[in-house]
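User: I'm writing a tutorial on reading structure tokens. Could you give me a worked example: one chain, its sequence, then its tokens, then a sentence or two explaining what the tokens reveal?
Assistant: Sure. Here is the example chain.
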Amino acid sequence: MFALFEKVTLLDCLAFAWLVVCWGGYAWYSEKSGAARNGLVGISRGYRHQWADALLRREIRVSDAALIGNLMSTVSFYANTTIYIIAGLFALLGTLDKVINIAADLPFSRHVVPEVVEMKLMVLLVIFVIAYFKFTWSLRLFNMQTILVGAAPLPSDPPDPVRRDAFCDKLATINSLAGDDFNRGIRAYYFGLATVTWMIQPWLFLAFTTAILVVLARRDFLSDATVALRQ
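And here are its predicted structure tokens:
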């Protein structure tokens, strides 16, 4: 273990630290900060609450079930894809020599240490394992939402505003939590793509991580879709 740390350069450590700061910092900014309400996450939460309110006013909820099914199929696609990526990374760990030869032939590459490459692949593997957990938990929450839709009170039931409002909040909350975990899985994909460049050069990894951060911020807060939804 200590021998590995001796082979890892300071630049590699800084690049990895920058990844953690960008990933964790942006997750907090886009979900928990005061500015989050003006981003796609915050705006979508408002629309999810409107959806829950409209659902409780409908006698027939076939369209709502279809919408949830569409969301679940999207999440399921990403979860299945992530399994293949994880399997591929395990396969790469078994053919490390070929990975090193390919990385050494790429532009801007430098001297490659096998133990360091293995460590980088493990970091990449962990990122996609995190993505898989996020997608599967999102899928489970959407399943829970279908149960709530089935248990939702009908407009023809005796009026009970307190129960109705509480159920509306419950529907919207589960929907938002499922959507948030799906977003976190997608975010892991973005930063996982940046981590791939770490195999070539730490400076390239730093640049790509920064570029991913800018792309995410622009899409969540400054894109045409965000402006349209905010209006």
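What the tokens reveal: Residues 39-230 form one domain. The chain has a mean pLDDT of 87.
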